[in-house]
Amino acid sequence: MRPAPTTLLAGGGSRARALISIMYLIFGEGYEELTDPRIAQFAGISTEAFHKHFASKEAAFLALVDAIEGEALDRVGERIGGAGWPESVNRGVGAFVDYLVSREPLTRVAFAELFSVGPGIVDRLTRLADELTHLLTNNAPRPSRAPLIAREATAGALWGIVSSRALANRVAGLGQVREQLSFLVLAPHIGAEAAVKAIEATRSPPAPA
């Protein structure tokens, strides 16, 4: 599948070409088969030029993940701008899911291929979910239960759902659990019943027969 373009990789410079090359090579060959010279060759640059931007394939891969994560969070921020809480949660989750589904191959890179990097990447595995949760709960009321771990639990649940689908090549199915993802964010703060009502309030009315 041809990956959808990401604006953060736009441009014809050697850095952007190297990141795009990693993206395509991962889809075709997998992360573990990558080498610095192979990436440089695919990008049409010298290995020396590649190393001017990245110390190693791992550093370049993480830069690609950073670009994907940053763009995803930017989309969320744009969608929730000006919206009050809890409406902003539904908007933000919708923007996040739309981004992941529309860029399914990139989603697999950001959520599934990270496991190929090795144990040194543990602290990066849930970063996107952590930052998303922060965005979505920034203006939320204090959690009614377990306030000290509510944000961590929410981020962990979001990560688990998205990463499991990325690993199983079922990213497209995230659209079907959009409301469940919103519920995971809302419920710790306002309770299950109020969370369901808040989600129902955002549903579009049925089309007239």
At a glance:
The protein is an all-alpha fold and 209 residues long.
Tally of alpha and pi helices: 10
List the domain count as a whole number. 2
Low-confidence stretches: 1-5
Biggest β-sheet: count, sense, barrel?
A: none
Distance between the termini: 38 Å
**Radius of gyration computed on alpha carbons:** 19 Å
Helix content: 55-70%
Identify the quaternary structure here: single chain
The structure class reads: mainly alpha
Mean pLDDT: 87
Counting DSSP E segments of at least 2 residues, the number of strands comes to 0
Shape: elongated
SSE pattern, N- to C-terminal: HHHHHHHHHH
SS strand fraction: under 5%
Structural account:
It is a single chain. This protein is an all-alpha fold. The chain has 2 domains: 9-55, Homeodomain-like (Arc Repressor Mutant, subunit A, Orthogonal Bundle), CATH 1.10.10; 65-201. It contains 10 helices and no strands. Helix 5 (87-102) packs antiparallel against helix 9 (178-190) and helix 8 (150-167) runs antiparallel to helix 9. The radius of gyration is 19 Å and the shape is elongated. The N and C termini lie far apart (38 Å). The model is unreliable at 1-5 (pLDDT under 50).
Which helices and strands, and how do they pair?
Layout: H1 14-29, H2 36-43, H3 47-53, H4 57-80, H5 87-102, H6 104-111, H7 127-137, H8 150-167, H9 178-190, H10 192-201
